[in-house]
Protein backbone atom coordinates (compact mmCIF):
# COMPACT_ATOMS: atom_id res chain seq x y z
CA UNK A 1 0.00 0.00 0.00
CA UNK A 2 2.26 2.67 -1.25
CA UNK A 3 0.21 5.72 -0.34
CA UNK A 4 0.24 5.07 3.37
CA UNK A 5 2.63 7.18 5.38
CA UNK A 6 3.19 9.74 2.66
CA UNK A 7 3.11 13.30 3.85
CA UNK A 8 0.11 14.02 1.66
CA UNK A 9 -2.03 11.60 3.58
CA UNK A 10 -0.45 12.04 6.96
CA UNK A 11 -1.98 13.80 9.91
CA UNK A 12 1.43 14.33 11.41
CA UNK A 13 2.74 13.74 14.88
CA UNK A 14 0.80 15.15 17.74
CA UNK A 15 2.72 16.54 20.73
CA UNK A 16 3.51 16.43 23.63
CA UNK A 17 6.66 14.51 23.27
CA UNK A 18 9.01 13.13 25.85
CA UNK A 19 12.13 15.24 26.38
CA UNK A 20 14.04 11.96 26.64
CA UNK A 21 12.74 10.36 23.46
CA UNK A 22 9.93 7.83 23.32
CA UNK A 23 10.17 4.60 25.27
CA UNK A 24 8.28 2.54 22.69
CA UNK A 25 6.81 2.71 19.25
CA UNK A 26 3.75 0.56 18.51
CA UNK A 27 2.23 -0.06 15.11
CA UNK A 28 -1.57 0.12 15.32
CA UNK A 29 -4.27 -0.69 12.77
CA UNK A 30 -7.83 0.50 12.43
CA UNK A 31 -9.99 -2.21 10.83
CA UNK A 32 -13.67 -2.85 10.20
CA UNK A 33 -16.25 -2.36 7.45
CA UNK A 34 -16.35 0.78 5.35
CA UNK A 35 -18.51 3.53 6.83
CA UNK A 36 -18.09 2.51 10.48
CA UNK A 37 -16.11 5.67 11.26
CA UNK A 38 -12.52 4.44 11.26
CA UNK A 39 -11.07 7.53 9.59
CA UNK A 40 -13.12 9.77 11.86
CA UNK A 41 -11.86 7.91 14.95
CA UNK A 42 -8.27 8.37 13.84
CA UNK A 43 -8.88 12.01 13.07
CA UNK A 44 -10.60 12.63 16.40
CA UNK A 45 -7.75 10.93 18.26
CA UNK A 46 -5.01 12.91 16.53
CA UNK A 47 -6.69 16.27 15.95
CA UNK A 48 -9.26 16.19 18.74
CA UNK A 49 -12.06 17.17 16.40
CA UNK A 50 -14.67 15.55 14.21
CA UNK A 51 -13.77 15.25 10.56
CA UNK A 52 -16.85 16.47 8.77
CA UNK A 53 -17.56 15.19 5.28
CA UNK A 54 -16.94 18.52 3.57
CA UNK A 55 -13.31 18.36 4.58
CA UNK A 56 -11.61 16.33 1.89
CA UNK A 57 -8.30 18.09 2.15
CA UNK A 58 -6.90 15.69 4.71
CA UNK A 59 -6.65 12.17 3.37
CA UNK A 60 -6.56 10.26 6.61
CA UNK A 61 -4.33 7.31 5.90
CA UNK A 62 -1.73 7.43 8.53
CA UNK A 63 -1.16 9.30 11.76
CA UNK A 64 1.02 9.18 14.79
CA UNK A 65 0.68 10.45 18.29
CA UNK A 66 2.72 10.22 21.42
CA UNK A 67 0.84 9.24 24.55
CA UNK A 68 1.91 8.84 28.14
CA UNK A 69 0.88 5.52 29.63
CA UNK A 70 1.78 5.05 33.27
CA UNK A 71 4.84 7.26 32.94
CA UNK A 72 6.08 5.71 29.70
CA UNK A 73 6.04 7.60 26.43
CA UNK A 74 4.60 5.52 23.64
CA UNK A 75 4.49 6.65 20.07
CA UNK A 76 1.54 5.11 18.27
CA UNK A 77 1.98 4.79 14.55
CA UNK A 78 -1.57 4.25 13.30
CA UNK A 79 -2.52 2.95 9.89
CA UNK A 80 -5.94 3.55 8.39
CA UNK A 81 -7.17 1.39 5.51
CA UNK A 82 -7.36 4.41 3.18
CA UNK A 83 -10.61 3.08 1.71
CA UNK A 84 -9.23 -0.32 0.67
CA UNK A 85 -11.84 -2.12 2.78
CA UNK A 86 -14.51 -0.97 0.33
CA UNK A 87 -13.05 -3.37 -2.20
CA UNK A 88 -12.30 -6.13 0.32
CA UNK A 89 -8.69 -5.82 -0.64
CA UNK A 90 -6.90 -4.92 2.55
CA UNK A 91 -3.45 -6.26 1.89
CA UNK A 92 -1.14 -8.41 3.93
CA UNK A 93 1.40 -5.62 4.11
CA UNK A 94 -1.17 -3.49 5.91
CA UNK A 95 -1.44 -6.03 8.72
CA UNK A 96 2.20 -7.06 8.91
CA UNK A 97 3.89 -6.36 12.21
CA UNK A 98 1.00 -4.67 13.98
CA UNK A 99 1.06 -4.73 17.77
CA UNK A 100 -2.47 -3.43 18.31
CA UNK A 101 -5.73 -2.82 16.50
CA UNK A 102 -9.03 -1.04 16.86
CA UNK A 103 -11.70 -3.31 15.41
CA UNK A 104 -14.61 -1.03 14.57
CA UNK A 105 -18.29 -1.66 13.92
CA UNK A 106 -21.19 0.78 13.81
CA UNK A 107 -23.76 0.29 16.59
CA UNK A 108 -26.50 1.34 14.14
CA UNK A 109 -25.57 -1.33 11.57
CA UNK A 110 -25.89 -5.03 12.33
CA UNK A 111 -24.19 -5.80 9.03
CA UNK A 112 -20.97 -4.20 10.26
CA UNK A 113 -21.24 -6.19 13.51
CA UNK A 114 -21.77 -9.44 11.61
CA UNK A 115 -18.54 -8.83 9.71
CA UNK A 116 -16.42 -8.75 12.88
CA UNK A 117 -15.49 -12.43 12.83
CA UNK A 118 -13.94 -12.11 9.37
CA UNK A 119 -11.92 -9.07 10.39
CA UNK A 120 -10.76 -10.83 13.51
CA UNK A 121 -9.63 -13.90 11.59
CA UNK A 122 -7.65 -11.74 9.17
CA UNK A 123 -6.03 -9.72 11.95
CA UNK A 124 -4.90 -12.78 13.87
CA UNK A 125 -3.76 -14.59 10.75
CA UNK A 126 -2.09 -11.73 8.90
CA UNK A 127 -0.79 -9.56 11.77
CA UNK A 128 -0.01 -11.83 14.66
CA UNK A 129 -1.72 -14.30 16.95
CA UNK A 130 -0.65 -11.98 19.80
CA UNK A 131 -2.10 -8.79 18.38
CA UNK A 132 -3.95 -6.84 21.09
CA UNK A 133 -7.38 -5.83 19.83
CA UNK A 134 -9.96 -3.47 21.23
CA UNK A 135 -13.47 -3.74 19.84
CA UNK A 136 -15.06 -0.32 19.27
CA UNK A 137 -18.81 0.03 18.84
CA UNK A 138 -18.71 3.43 17.15
CA UNK A 139 -21.46 6.07 16.66
CA UNK A 140 -22.48 5.77 20.31
CA UNK A 141 -24.14 9.18 19.88
CA UNK A 142 -26.77 7.57 17.61
CA UNK A 143 -28.30 5.52 20.38
CA UNK A 144 -31.87 5.86 19.07
CA UNK A 145 -30.87 4.07 15.82
CA UNK A 146 -29.01 1.33 17.62
CA UNK A 147 -29.12 -2.19 16.07
CA UNK A 148 -26.52 -3.82 18.31
CA UNK A 149 -26.86 -3.86 22.09
CA UNK A 150 -23.97 -3.15 24.42
CA UNK A 151 -24.54 -6.50 26.11
CA UNK A 152 -24.26 -8.70 23.03
CA UNK A 153 -21.14 -6.90 21.85
CA UNK A 154 -19.53 -7.20 25.25
CA UNK A 155 -20.27 -10.95 25.22
CA UNK A 156 -18.71 -11.24 21.77
CA UNK A 157 -15.67 -9.36 23.05
CA UNK A 158 -15.34 -11.64 26.06
CA UNK A 159 -15.65 -14.80 23.97
CA UNK A 160 -12.98 -13.56 21.58
CA UNK A 161 -10.60 -12.10 24.17
CA UNK A 162 -11.04 -8.53 23.05
CA UNK A 163 -11.29 -5.38 25.08
CA UNK A 164 -14.46 -3.44 24.38
CA UNK A 165 -15.69 0.15 24.38
CA UNK A 166 -18.48 2.04 22.70
CA UNK A 167 -17.09 5.19 21.12
CA UNK A 168 -18.20 8.30 19.31
CA UNK A 169 -15.87 9.93 16.82
CA UNK A 170 -18.47 12.70 16.69
CA UNK A 171 -18.42 13.67 20.38
CA UNK A 172 -14.98 12.22 21.12
CA UNK A 173 -16.36 9.95 23.83
CA UNK A 174 -14.00 7.06 24.62
CA UNK A 175 -11.82 7.71 21.57
CA UNK A 176 -8.59 8.50 23.41
CA UNK A 177 -9.48 5.76 25.93
CA UNK A 178 -9.65 3.12 23.18
CA UNK A 179 -6.11 3.83 21.97
CA UNK A 180 -4.72 4.23 25.49
CA UNK A 181 -6.32 1.03 26.84
CA UNK A 182 -4.93 -0.94 23.92
CA UNK A 183 -1.44 0.54 24.43
CA UNK A 184 -1.61 -0.12 28.17
CA UNK A 185 -2.43 -3.78 27.58
CA UNK A 186 0.54 -4.13 25.22
CA UNK A 187 2.83 -2.53 27.80
CA UNK A 188 1.51 -4.88 30.48
CA UNK A 189 2.24 -7.84 28.23
CA UNK A 190 5.77 -6.60 27.63
CA UNK A 191 6.33 -6.17 31.36
CA UNK A 192 4.99 -9.62 32.16
CA UNK A 193 7.19 -11.16 29.46
CA UNK A 194 4.20 -12.36 27.44
CA UNK A 195 5.27 -10.16 24.52
CA UNK A 196 8.84 -9.89 23.38
CA UNK A 197 9.48 -6.59 21.60
CA UNK A 198 12.68 -8.02 20.15
CA UNK A 199 10.83 -10.70 18.25
CA UNK A 200 10.60 -9.97 14.56
CA UNK A 201 7.23 -8.62 13.53
CA UNK A 202 6.07 -7.83 17.06
CA UNK A 203 5.03 -4.36 15.93
CA UNK A 204 6.95 -2.91 18.85
CA UNK A 205 10.19 -0.99 18.80
CA UNK A 206 12.15 0.53 21.60
CA UNK A 207 12.50 4.25 21.24
CA UNK A 208 15.33 4.39 23.70
CA UNK A 209 18.37 2.14 23.61
CA UNK A 210 19.01 2.72 27.31
CA UNK A 211 15.66 1.19 28.15
CA UNK A 212 16.59 -1.96 26.29
CA UNK A 213 19.78 -2.12 28.32
CA UNK A 214 17.83 -1.82 31.55
CA UNK A 215 15.36 -4.48 30.60
CA UNK A 216 17.71 -7.11 29.26
CA UNK A 217 21.24 -6.72 30.56
CA UNK A 218 22.51 -9.83 28.78
CA UNK A 219 21.65 -8.39 25.41
CA UNK A 220 22.81 -4.92 26.34
CA UNK A 221 24.66 -2.83 23.84
CA UNK A 222 26.61 0.35 24.32
CA UNK A 223 24.12 3.20 24.52
CA UNK A 224 23.84 4.89 21.19
CA UNK A 225 23.03 8.47 20.42
CA UNK A 226 19.42 8.89 21.30
CA UNK A 227 16.96 9.46 18.54
CA UNK A 228 13.97 11.54 19.34
CA UNK A 229 11.05 9.93 17.56
CA UNK A 230 9.17 13.19 17.18
P1 LIG B 1 -14.67 4.65 7.43
O1 LIG B 1 -15.10 4.27 6.06
O2 LIG B 1 -14.78 3.50 8.38
O3 LIG B 1 -13.33 5.31 7.48
O4 LIG B 1 -15.73 5.70 7.96
P2 LIG B 1 -15.65 7.31 7.99
O5 LIG B 1 -14.72 7.76 9.08
O6 LIG B 1 -15.35 7.81 6.64
O7 LIG B 1 -17.14 7.68 8.43
C1 LIG B 1 -18.25 7.23 7.71
C2 LIG B 1 -19.45 8.11 8.00
O8 LIG B 1 -19.86 7.97 9.35
C3 LIG B 1 -19.19 9.60 7.77
O9 LIG B 1 -20.35 10.15 7.20
C4 LIG B 1 -18.97 10.15 9.16
O10 LIG B 1 -19.36 11.50 9.26
C5 LIG B 1 -19.88 9.24 10.00
N1 LIG B 1 -19.38 9.02 11.38
C6 LIG B 1 -18.18 8.56 11.73
N2 LIG B 1 -18.08 8.43 13.05
C7 LIG B 1 -19.27 8.85 13.57
C8 LIG B 1 -19.79 8.94 14.91
O11 LIG B 1 -19.16 8.62 15.91
N3 LIG B 1 -21.08 9.39 15.02
C9 LIG B 1 -21.82 9.76 13.95
N4 LIG B 1 -23.05 10.20 14.17
N5 LIG B 1 -21.36 9.67 12.68
C10 LIG B 1 -20.10 9.23 12.50
MG1 LIG C 1 -11.90 5.57 6.01
UniProtKB/TrEMBL annotation:
The record describes its membrane topology as: Lipid-anchor
Q: Name one Pfam family in it.
A: Ras
What keywords are annotated for this sequence in UniProt? GTP-binding, Lipoprotein, Membrane, Methylation, Nucleotide-binding, Prenylation, Protein transport, Transport
| Catalyzed reactions per annotation | GTP + H2O = GDP + phosphate + H(+)
Compartments where located:
Cell membrane; Early endosome membrane
Its principal location?
Answer: membrane
- Enumerate the InterPro entries for this protein: P-loop_NTPase (IPR027417), Rab4 (IPR041819), Rab_GTPases_membrane_traffic (IPR050209), Small_GTP-bd (IPR005225), Small_GTPase (IPR001806)
Which domain of life, per UniProt? Eukaryota
Please name the SMART domains in this protein's record.
ARF, RAB, RAN, RAS, RHO
User: What PANTHER family does UniProt report for this protein, alphabetically?
Assistant: DRAB11-RELATED (PTHR47979)
Give a short account of what the protein does: The small GTPases Rab are key regulators of intracellular membrane trafficking, from the formation of transport vesicles to their fusion with membranes. Rabs cycle between an inactive GDP-bound form and an active GTP-bound form that is able to recruit to membranes different sets of downstream effectors directly responsible for vesicle formation, movement, tethering and fusion.
Record family assignment: Belongs to the small GTPase superfamily. Rab family.
Q: What is this protein called?
A: Ras-related protein Rab-4
Source taxonomy: Eukaryota, Metazoa, Chordata, Craniata, Vertebrata
**Which gene codes for it?**
RAB4A
